[in-house]
Design goal:
alpha+beta, two-stranded antiparallel sheet, 2 strands, elongated, membrane
Length: 48
């Protein structure tokens, strides 16, 4: 039982590290400047 728990903890940590890496990568590659969205709610402008 202890070995299964250890594998579960290690697997959860691997998933967290991968998710954090993807988040950091997306934040680093996000274009800088102004984002303009036009949709059914209207026009929205957001500065990045």
């Amino acid at each position: 039982m202890k070995q299964n728990t250890l594998y579960l903890i290690i697997g959860a940590l691997v998933v967290v590290v991968i998710a954090l890496g993807v988040y950091v990568y997306r934040e680093q590659t996000k274009p800088k400047g102004v984002e303009l969205k036009i949709d059914d709610k209207g026009i929205s402008i957001q500065q990045n």
